[in-house]
Amino acid sequence: MQAFAYQTPASVADAVKAAGTDNVKIIAGGQSLLGAMKLGLSAPDALVDLADVAEMKGICLDGNNVVIGAMTTHATVAESAEVRKAIPALAALAGGIGDRQVRNRGTIGGSLANNDPAACYPSAVLGLGATIKTDRRTIAADDFFQGMYQTALAADEIIVSVSFPIPAKAAYQKFRQPASRFSLVGVFVSQGPQGVRVAVTGAAPGVFRATAIEAALAANWSAAAASAVKVPADGLNTDLHGSAEYRAALIPVLAGRAVAAA
């Protein structure tokens, strides 16, 4: 890797100030960024490490919402008694991300800002209708994800926390790529304050809502109703792991399993 400056701000305000300079990358865990730098795919002049920003860590209940700081690791979410009680599906999702090293270094904020098309967290955020709070505004999940590795964030905008409405029912099912443990297809279903939501990751260039399955479940919340929906292959990914048609066939199957688990 090339030489770069390294900053460790202690507050969100200091982090925002440091991130405002040219060719700076924010590092929130580094599980994706450091790999890209080693491969020469990213060459920042400076890194702004958020590891020391205490106000961006932790989990709390706020009314009918679970609020998770952006610098909270996957392992912490998976092991949280509050998350396991309020949204067990979210804890289970976090516990299935990557391997032990990834879960202990990777953070929810880093995952969302990176928006890998096969990452698990985007499906939970979209599937639960969560709200992303940044240093300057709040962004609804439906407005946050904007395509492959693209989000509504400005270049120097930092995710501070994520607020998840507590659902009546929710579950996540992932058909994982065995080497990377990313989602070949992952489906998150919920029934909650915003009605029925079904979010799919891994199948397309970005996370998306499966509206046909949502409509079927709104009429009949059952595994059979979800599994019976035919999902078109148009716009889905084809690669060495599976064709678009294969992924299209997996989506309703996993949605049905998620409903049964919920």
Structural notes for this entry:
This protein folds into 2 domains: 5-165, Uridine Diphospho-n-acetylenolpyruvylglucosamine Reductase, domain 3, CATH 3.30.465.10; 169-261, CO dehydrogenase flavoprotein, C-terminal domain (Enolase-like, domain 1, 2-Layer Sandwich). 35% of the residues lie in helices and 23% in strands. The chain is built from 12 helices and 12 strands. It has helices spanning 12-19, 33-38, 74-79, 81-86, 88-95, 100-105, 108-114, 121-128, 141-144, 211-219, 223-227, 244-261; strands at residues 5-7, 24-27, 46-49, 59-62, 65-69, 131-134, 138-140, 159-165, 169-176, 183-192, 195-201, 208-209. A 5-stranded antiparallel sheet has the order 4-5-8-6-7. Strands 9-10-11-12 form a 4-stranded antiparallel sheet, sandwiched between helices. A 3-stranded parallel sheet has the order 1-3-2, with helices on one face. It is globular. 45% of the residues are buried. The mean pLDDT is 94.
Would you count the extended β strands for me? 12
What value does the Rg take, in angstroms? 18 Å
Measured by DSSP, the beta-strand proportion falls in 15-25%
CATH architecture of the largest domain: 2-Layer Sandwich
The structural class is alpha+beta
Helix content: 25-40%
CATH topology of the largest domain: Uridine Diphospho-n-acetylenolpyruvylglucosamine Reductase, domain 3
User: Biggest β-sheet, characterized?
Assistant: 5 strands, antiparallel
What is the CATH C level class of the largest domain, in words? Alpha Beta
- Going across the biggest sheet, name each strand in turn: 4-5-8-6-7
Overall pLDDT level: 94
**SSE order in H/E notation?**
EHEHEEEHHHHHHEEHEEEEEHHH
What is the overall number of helices? Answer: 12
Q: How would the global form be characterised? A: globular
Give the distance, in angstroms, between the N- and C-terminal Cα atoms: 45 Å
